[in-house]
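[Meeting: bench + compute handoff]

Bench side (C.D.) handed over the final construct sequence. Compute side (W.E.) agreed to return the predicted structure before the next meeting so the bench team could plan truncations. Sequence as handed over:
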Amino acid sequence: MVAFANQKGGVGKTTTAVNSAVALARHGYHVLLIDLDPQGNATSSLGVDKHAPGATTYDVLVDGVPAERVTIATGRARLDLMAANPMLAGAEIELVERPERERRLATALTGVLSRYDVVLIDCPPSLGLLTVNALTAARSVVVPIQCEYLALEGLGQLIATIDLVKQRLNPPLDVVGVLMTMYDARTRLSAHVVDEVRRFFPHRIFAAIVPRSIRLAEAPSYGQSIVEYDPGSRGADAYEHFAGELAERLRLPQPEPTAAD
């Protein structure tokens, strides 16, 4: 299980979670994508109406609804979704008095993990109880970082939170890698930020680098991932490479060959 986490907004968490989920499913893996952000952008990015009736991650965390009653099909082979809607914003407050508040997601997922090769969690841009639930449930963390000035600001706080969750709640948790996003080859700044991150995380940075791209920004408005919207684009190529790297680092077994979808 992988959490995509960074308390800074606009770094490409949702874009990365959605495109990784679709790419891995297309590679033959059975994937569950969990939208844990009250904005519900991962949900709408897959063409799912986040305002449609039905149980969501809010019901899982607050009411203890088992995950198998919340997962829905996305219309894509081997890819399911636990959707989110704005009600999830209230969960941070409602969870405060609940027993085992940090483990609500992990407990709910117990019955469905065997169905999937990999579970991906799109975290909100905060280090509150929603993100802590994701970190407690996950075994791995991917940290997307945009190639912009102050990209490393707050990264120490995120690593400290991950270490705290690891010590107190989830010993197997580890940062599987750092993904550079919004890379602009026309600027020296992007290259400088990548060099700085590589200096801090020489063995954790992914080789794939996601470019700044209008096509990547357009795809969610059509309810599609970039590999569906424009499979020949630089963004699609970057996420295909990243998905392969992620599968290798997670040591996912090679999927069985599948018939054309």
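W.E. noted at the follow-up: The chain has a mean pLDDT of 93. C.D. will use this when planning the next construct.
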